[in-house]
DNA sequence: TTTAAACTCTACTACTCATATATAATTACT
DNA sequence: AGTAATTATATATGAGTAGTAGAGTTTAAA
């Protein structure tokens, strides 16, 4: 399941994607439109900025805007930024690999191979869902 | 990501699936073989019993055994029993549907449709992974 | 019938993480 | 200078995860 943070991030990105190009949206407007607690949204937008998905402008008439186009931002990207691995166990993850502490011999693990299959399927589906594809629905 | 509980449950089921038919395994043996804390495993096996995946025999020489054959137990089943919904948000879930509190009009939600697509893909993959398919690898 | 070995059940604890909130600082435009 | 916005850090809190403890119940063998 997605965390609230990831859900809010997606909603904020969807909001930004629906604005005119070059339009700068302030946090307050995004928060109201997408029904997100404002201070929480600030954190999320900062994270999105660090991930180079949005840019910001400070001061009066400042705010946030998309840095990439909607079809360059996939669900997989946002999931990884906020919720981390897409695989069901760290040992089956591409970007967040970690050994299981209870695993004596990974090569003998019956679980891992199946979980990597799931990961590939899920990842493929998640890469197909982009901010643009969601807006054009 | 899977919880430890789900991972342990899968490992326990894999262990049981590898025993001779009619063999009854005691918790201690499963715990040692699969490297699972025994008291924690007891809880998990009880949950699996309530889910009708395993049966038990009490008393001396008692223990646990598979109630269904390995190809009748899917990853989706076990995920739902321990970790709940397979969908990324409750509003996109088949078995654990719940409205989002921050959603004003579900039919207008741009996110939901895409998440249901992911759910269908993931679910299909998770139903294909069975205890039997994992053992025969 | 006693006893050991197993499951059953409830409650509890320690810890981590998610979800925010609060406050102060910085920046930029007018 | 004043205002309105982002940026940063710290804190609060509630829920969930992972695991432990202990008493009770059932069964089968001796």
Brief digest:
The first copy, chain A, is mainly alpha-helical and 137 residues long. The first copy, chain A, has six helices and two strands; from the N terminus they run αααββααα. The first copy, chain A, has a two-stranded antiparallel sheet.
Q: State the major sheet of chain A.
A: 2 strands, antiparallel
Q: Strand order, main sheet of chain A: write it out.
A: 1-2
What is the structural class of chain A?
mainly alpha
Low-confidence residue ranges of chain A = none
The global form of chain A is elongated
Order of helices and strands of chain A: HHHEEHHH
Largest interface: A-B, 37 and 37 residues
Quaternary structure type = homodimer
Number of strands of chain A: 2
What does this structure look like?
- Two copies of one chain form a homodimer.
- Chain A has 137 residues and is mainly alpha-helical.
- Helices cover 49% and strands 6% of the residues of chain A.
- Chain A is built from six helices and two strands, in the order H-H-H-E-E-H-H-H.
- The A-B interface holds A 1-2, 7, 10-11, 14, 34-36, 75, 84-85, 87-90, 100, 102-104, 110-111, 113-114, 117-118, 121-122, 124-126, 128-129, 133-135, 137 and B 1-2, 7, 10-11, 14, 34-36, 75, 84-85, 87-90, 100, 102-104, 110-111, 113-114, 117-118, 121-122, 124-126, 128-129, 133-135, 137.
- Chain A binds a DNA duplex (30 and 30 nucleotides) through residues 3-5, 26-28, 37, 39-40, 42-43, 45-46, 49, 56-64.
Q: Any chance you could write out the topology, listing elements then pairs?
A:
The structure is a homodimer of 137-residue chains.
Chain A lengths: L3 H14 L9 H8 L3 H13 L3 E4 L5 E4 L8 H8 L27 H19 L2 H5 L2
Antiparallel strand pairs in A: 1-2
Helix pairs in contact in A: 1-2, 1-3, 1-4, 2-3
The structure holds a DNA duplex (30 and 30 nucleotides).
